[in-house]
Write a structure and sequence with these properties.
Elements lengths: L1 E5 L5 H12 L13 H11 L1 E2 L2 E2 L1 E6 L2 E11 L2 E9 L4 H12 L7 E7 L3 H9 L3 E12 L12 E2 L5 H11 L7 H7 L5 E8 L2 E11 L4 E9 L8 H14 L6 E7 L3 H9 L3 E12 L1
Keywords: Acyltransferase, Transferase
Protein name: GNAT family N-acetyltransferase
Organism: Solibacillus palustris
Length: 288
């Protein structure tokens, strides 16, 4: 008999083990969730608990988890971890989805990142009418071969930069998951950094990245150059300055990023900088 359950904090270790087991197989893989149990458990404790409520839901059969979906919620948008389903039974997953989302009245938008080899969840996206938004490449750059820049021209973001930063970010990443204001609000966490490149008082570009020492990893969330300064090599400069700052942290062994598969100019920049393809992800959005 299948049952549906919202997890408690003391059940997160079981959830982390389930995610780690499935996410190591591209047939079940969901982007950005990780494959190591302890790393996943840390993320679940950090991002999936709101006022003692855990935004993670499962199906069980004979007391074992058979399906799982979790929600990392910020400002009305949820990044969906999953759905995960070892048995891949569509009806059970539909019921789990409705059970889970009925508890999340504040969420107006759901974001999914499905591995291109995970055909079952692509079918589920069609079932719930989620719209494919892009094809993404998930890239990784290891620390061992990186040669740091000796001179750093970029500097930390300051509040006086906001108007120019917002203009560049909104133009480069319209309708993205973090607005410029959201990025600035996330800077309260010292592991999140926003650096800017300036010419006098004009903002030429920026890079925003989030570090997870426990996973020995930093994710480069956004990097962009203002239109007036493109074609001058500033993208390469800013990327390498960001990598220099990131790898100065002894705990960090690698940097990851996601880029649109059709963005050939950016892809060329990243490959030349030593990034390598890890996964191809299909991005979906569901608005309610």
């Amino acid at each position: 008999m299948t049952t549906f359950e919202q997890l408690t904090v003391d059940q997160l270790e079981e959830a982390a083990a389930y995610i780690a087991a499935l996410n190591s197989n591209k047939k079940f893989h969901i982007g950005f969730c990780g494959t190591e149990k302890e790393d996943i458990l840390g993320d679940l404790h950090e991002d999936f608990i709101e006022e003692s409520q855990v935004n993670m839901f499962v199906t069980r059969n004979a007391d074992k988890i058979t399906g799982l979906v979790g929600f990392d919620i910020y400002d009305g948008t949820a990044e969906v971890w999953g759905p995960f389903s070892r048995e891949q039974q569509i009806e059970n997953q539909i019921q789990l989805w409705h059970f889970a989302t009925s508890k999340l009245n504040q969420v107006k938008e759901f974001l999914f990142f499905i591995n291109e080899e995970n055909t079952f969840q692509q079918q589920f996206m069609e079932t719930i009418d989620a719209k494919k938004s892009s094809d993404e490449l998930y890239l990784k750059r290891m620390k061992e071969t990186f040669q740091p820049y000796e001179v750093i021209s970029s500097e930390p973001y300051s509040e006086q930069d906001f108007a120019q930063f917002e203009a560049i970010h909104s133009l480069a990443f319209p309708n993205t998951y973090y607005s410029a204001r959201t990025i600035v609000e996330r800077l309260h966490n010292s592991a999140h950094q926003l650096i800017v490149l300036k010419e006098n008082h004009a903002l030429q570009g920026y890079a925003y990245f989030e570090t997870d020492d426990a996973q020995h990893s930093t994710h480069l969330e956004f990097i962009a150059i203002a239109p007036a300064y493109r074609g001058l090599g500033l993208g390469k400069q800013l990327l390498n300055e960001a990598l220099t700052l990131i790898f100065a942290n002894d705990a960090i062994t690698h940097v990851t990023l996601t880029v649109n598969n059709t963005n050939t100019e950016a892809n060329s920049l990243y490959y030349k900088a030593g990034f390598q393809k890890q996964d191809a992800l299909l991005s979906y959005v569901l608005q309610v």
